[in-house]
Design goal:
heterodimer; A: 232 residues; alpha/beta; 4-stranded antiparallel β-sheet; 33% helix; B: 412 residues; 2 domains; 8-stranded mixed β-sheet; 55% helix; 16% strand
Chain lengths: 232, 412
């Protein structure tokens, strides 16, 4: 099992009147090579779920085994290493660094990985080519459309060849045509062996995944397998 | 992440916000420049002082004494010094002030002791004995010094300072020529090498030395009350000072009311003055440097302030960097290097302005002295500003690195 979480709680203001249970005892297993959509309305806890799965946030209680390693015991440095090498993030708002051009943005995780100067530019270009953005390598995010920015963000996410890609509403800010293109890329990555975890509120997009985990009020209410592409 | 990359990022981020980076640097620039200028001005003043004292003669004891009973103090002191150990004393000369104008003429050229239009052309007629040259650090260029006989016989001879020799004789040999002083003829027997010190207001090179016994005719018989004793070393100077002082104290005892009834006498070493002045210069350097360092500190606080603003502004960027795998130390390094680079560039600019300021200060405050800041001060100021950057960059950097990625990502 690649990802295995057991009774994960994420509780804000615990014990106070304003207590919020963003995740309320969630257990889930995701296997290598899966394409999972985590579906829910806003406030259902799906973003918190991704933050916990992506080691961006620490759960209040529960265990999280990533590739057999207990993540909640890791140091800050080890977590940084996991975020760098094991997981690639794609965000709704792209989260590119505005001051850097496309190539520099994609190079960044390789710099943190410690890849040599000579190698990392080639690898970053390779990632940009993969998403069809090689010709925009020296454009700043402000000089690109939303779809282009999201493709650069995908290139950044795959630059270190992480086994897991997490995408949080990757199409949320895009029109349907560009959105389809982005999903197409994700599907290709999945076909090449990456595990994709897609967070969305959109049933239509969720239908593209092989498995849909539905969240409501911080709990899993259903876990369906099987492609429902026909429903779109 | 390696260091080169971190430096690149720092430069990039500074270049991206030029105005703000410059304003941040301004505090450091002004601070460093003022440290450099202040310290070099004090050092320049000190150097000038030392040069002066060197030219005036070192290892000198100045004596002033006056007897109410009309005793010839010159004879008394000459006798006393002659009896002192030759290991201590080189010689003694009276110092006589002239109270009337002296006009020197030679070959159609005229110079006066009272030319107040241009100090460069003002000459100085001094009276002394055979030890005058050695007591005042003059070196004979040609001819001879005054001799004991010249003094005894009140010979009408003179020795010229290098500057005056050039004025009167240009480059020809003055020895054997006759000049007139207030119409009286004097034979030139020798001349001193010019000391060529800057701003020779006192006219050390425009000196004209006569046997002091001439005093009686030329200067209406002024009583001699000041002497200079040249000693062999600085420790001998101290020794001679205390010996002469106790001799004078013995000569002029104090009565029950604390008054010296028969006369007074003081011995004063300029070695002490020299040490005191060096001590003072050190104090001045510290005080002035300290004031300037405070402004540098204020500059450093400005850096911290800006770095904190930067951290807040760039929280999202920090979140992104952490999300894609930046370690805590990478983030700390990024912000620290940025602060250090800002301070370093500010320090370099400050040093450049400081050097310019020192040159200007040298020109206007120290009469055209070429004031070049000391290398140690320059290096020190640079290192201090970089260290300041690291110290004041530390807090914002640590603050930035400690953010949870998810918290940082949520920031707008």
């Amino acid at each position: 099992m690649l990802i295995e979480i057991q009774d994960i709680f994420k509780i804000y203001n615990e014990g106070k009147e304003s207590e919020v249970r963003a995740l309320d005892g969630v257990s889930l297993q995701i296997d290598r090579g899966e394409f999972v959509a985590i579906v829910g309305q806003s406030g259902s806890g799906k973003s918190t779920m991704m933050n916990v799965l992506g080691c961006l946030d620490i759960p209040t209680y529960g265990t999280y085994l990533l590739d057999g390693t207990e993540v909640t015991d890791l140091t800050d440095r080890q977590l940084a290493r996991i975020r760098n090498r094991e997981i690639g993030f794609i965000f709704q708002g792209y989260n590119l660094i505005q001051e850097l051009d496309a190539l520099e943005n994609v190079t960044l995780p390789l710099i943190y990985q410690g890849v040599s100067v000579f190698e990392r530019e080639d690898r970053a270009m390779e990632a940009l080519e993969r998403v069809g953005m090689a010709d925009r390598a020296h454009h700043r995010p402000s000089e690109m459309s939303g779809g282009q920015q999201q493709r650069v963000a995908i290139a950044r996410a795959i630059a270190t060849h992480p086994p897991i890609i997490m995408a949080d509403e990757p199409t949320g800010a895009l029109d349907s045509k560009t959105g389809r293109h982005v999903l197409e890329i994700l599907r290709e990555l999945n076909a090449d062996g990456s595990t994709i975890i897609l967070i969305t509120h959109d049933e239509g997009i969720a239908a593209q995944a092989h498995r849909r985990v539905r969240l409501t009020d911080g709990r899993i209410v259903s876990d369906e397998r099987g492609k429902e592409a026909a429903a779109v | 992440m390696n260091l080169v990359q971190a430096f690149k990022m720092a430069f990039k981020s500074i270049a991206m916000k030029k105005t703000r980076s410059f304003l941040t640097m301004l505090g450091i620039i002004i601070g460093v420049a003022s440290v450099v200028v202040m310290v070099s001005v004090v050092a320049g003043q000190n150097k000038k002082n030392m040069e002066w004292m060197e030219a005036m003669g070192n290892n000198i004891v100045e004596v002033s004494a006056y007897s109410y009973t009309g005793q010839d103090m010159d004879a008394v002191l000459n006798e006393y010094v002659a009896a002192l150990d030759k290991k201590l004393v080189v010689g003694i000369t009276p110092v006589v002030n002239l109270w009337s104008e002296m006009i020197v003429r030679y070959g159609g050229k005229t110079y006066s002791t009272e030319n107040y239009d241009d100090w460069r052309d003002r000459i100085q007629v001094v009276l002394g004995n055979e030890s005058y040259g050695v007591c005042n650090n003059y070196e004979l260029a040609a001819g001879r010094e005054l001799s004991f006989l010249d003094i005894e016989k009140e010979n009408s001879v003179c020795v010229l300072g290098g500057g005056l020799k050039e004025k009167l004789f240009n480059y020809t040999d003055p020895v054997g020529e006759t000049i007139t002083i207030n119409g009286l003829p004097f034979l030139v027997i020798g001349w001193y090498q010019a000391k060529n010190i800057e701003d020779d207001y006192s006219g050390m090179d425009n000196v004209l030395l006569l046997p002091y016994t001439i005093n009686r005719t030329l200067n209406k018989n002024q009583t001699i009350s000041q002497w200079k004793i040249k000693c062999t070393s600085s420790s001998a100077t101290g020794e001679v000072t205390s010996r002469v002082q106790s001799f004078l104290n013995g000569m002029f005892p104090v009565d029950e009311n604390g008054n010296q009834m028969s006369g007074w006498g003081n011995a004063y070493s300029n070695e002490e003055y020299r040490e005191a002045s060096q001590e003072q210069a050190k104090m001045r350097t510290m005080v002035m440097g300290g004031i300037a360092a405070i402004s540098l500190l204020v500059g450093g606080i400005g850096i911290m302030n800006i770095m904190l603003v930067t951290v807040t502004e760039r929280t999202r960027e920090i979140g992104i960097r952490k999300a894609i795998g930046a370690e805590r130390r990478s983030i700390i390094a990024q912000f620290l290097i940025e602060a250090a680079v800002i301070c370093g560039i500010g320090g370099i600019l400050g040093i450049i302005f400081g050097c310019m300021g020192s040159l200007i200060a040298g020109k206007f405050l120290l009469n055209g002295m070429i004031l070049w800041p000391d290398q140690g001060i320059v290096m020190g100021a640079f290192l201090f500003s970089v260290v300041l950057g690291i110290i004041f960059g530390m807090y914002p950097a640590v603050k930035a690195s400690g953010l949870q990625p998810v918290v940082a990502l949520r920031a707008e």
